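pinging the channel bc i need a second pair of eyes. not urgent but kinda urgent?? the chain im working w is below, pasted from the shared doc
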Amino acid sequence: MTTTYALLLRGINVGGHRKVPMAQLRSVLEELGHRDVRTYLQSGNAVFTTDAAAADEELATAIEAAIEEHFGFRVDCLVRAHDYLAAVAENCPFPAAELEGRQLHAFYLSRPVDDSRFAGIDREAFLPEAFALGDRVLYLYAPDGLGRSKLGEALSRPALYKDVFATGRNWNTVLKLVEMTGPAH
């Protein structure tokens, strides 16, 4: 069965560090046997089609190994199919249609987490900013953008992610990845 996936790389091409040129990333994915490889922006978003009957985690592990071999450093990767990406967009607890893309973010998580992980964050203290958890995703509403978000800063503390990693995308990118992985791509 052919499936189209989005590949989300964490922490590349930021401030001139851990450079992964998108043309080279496409080549790495093609060398792994994936087809219809496309990238979106320079921040680590790719879409590919494969016939591999592997789980998301298996695909991500193979891609991480290939990236490390090619570029010489390890990059955390998430691989998610269209149905999952569409569900993240559909299940957003914030009024996405009424917001600018910079005001809403999805932080894709490597595994499920529960609210107890964030019990030490006083949600009331950060209003009107807010966050909510979904299926392997943390939604962040930051009306002034992520760069000015005090809640985003509190949510980025490494202690919250000891056994899980997260990679964030603004809402415009969330919707673009849904589109790019969809049946009419």
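so The chain is about 30% helix and 25% strand. and Residues 3-82 form a domain with the Alpha-Beta Plaits fold (CATH 3.30.70.1280). — does that match what u expected or am i reading it wrong
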